[in-house]
Write a structure and sequence with these properties.
The chain is mainly α. Helix content is 67%, strand content 4%. Helix 1 packs across helix 6, helix 2 runs parallel beside helix 5 and helix 5 packs antiparallel against helix 6.
Length: 246
């Protein structure tokens, strides 16, 4: 599963950071773009973006197939579905916790990003380089959702389920999950690596504590929506903090 998804991304990110630090250009003077155009013509760019979203969820579909249970909750192994609570309400409560978790991670994370960029251990992260079209924001919201589903269901929920069955202890699972999350963000620099390890520890601990994946998905989705869709505004308001190096 990891070889088909974020495990492969981690390997590529290791190669990417080695390539970056061996350039003549300082790491702090380099950029890492997350969402970029996939075609010159807007109509085909939209088609490619939607295809990227759809096929990017294939590993999630495979995880769902592998852990599906005949009895409800069908996705209990991933911490999804009603468990002793009133069915229409469980997702509301867990979504609310996701908002709290997003705020707890997002604000310190933004400060940490600015700090690591200032001391030269991180690239300038360009959250989106997409041109302004009617579909740009909806596509960015979809890309944020894809990242949230893939990362939280595979790197946290699925990894917990499989490593527990292999006899790995809780601390080992939390550290493995956090290290994997940090590694596939290495392409952004060492700041992205450290920051995502911290985020990974918090998210994995929360999953261990409550056994619920929806708060993690909601929190991650919110963080990426703000990061992706809010990047042009942040760039306009604080160009020295979020702009590309000159």
């Amino acid at each position: 599963m990891l070889a088909l998804s974020l495990g492969a991304s981690a390997v590529y990110s290791i190669v990417a950071i080695v390539e970056r630090v061996t350039r003549e250009t300082a790491l702090s003077s380099q950029t890492a773009t997350i969402n970029r155009p996939l075609a010159e013509r807007p109509a085909f760019d939209l088609i490619y973006q939607l295809l990227s979203f759809t096929f990017g969820l294939a590993p999630v579909a495979l995880v769902v197939f592998l852990v599906w249970r005949a009895r409800r909750p069908h996705l209990g192994a991933l911490g999804l579905g009603a468990t002793g609570t009133v069915a229409p309400r469980w997702w509301l409560r867990e979504s609310g916790f996701g908002f709290v978790l997003a705020a707890a991670i997002g604000i310190p994370g933004l400060v940490f990003y600015v700090f690591t960029r200032a001391i030269g251990i991180n690239t300038t992260v360009v959250a989106t380089a997409l041109d302004a079209h009617w579909w740009t924001v909806p596509v960015l919201v979809l890309m944020a959702l894809k990242a949230a589903l893939v990362e939280e269901l595979i790197v946290v929920a699925y990894l917990f389920d499989r490593l527990r069955k292999l006899g790995v202890g809780t601390i080992g699972i939390i550290l493995a999950s956090a290290l994997l999350r940090g590694t596939y963000h290495l392409y952004q620099g060492f700041g992205g690596f450290i920051g995502n390890i911290v985020m990974g520890v918090v998210f994995a601990w929360a999953y261990h504590r409550w056994g619920r994946a929806l708060p993690l998905i909601v929190a991650h989705w919110l963080l990426d929506i703000v990061s992706f869709a809010g990047y042009p505004l942040a760039l306009a308001l604080w160009p020295t903090l979020f702009g590309t190096p000159t």
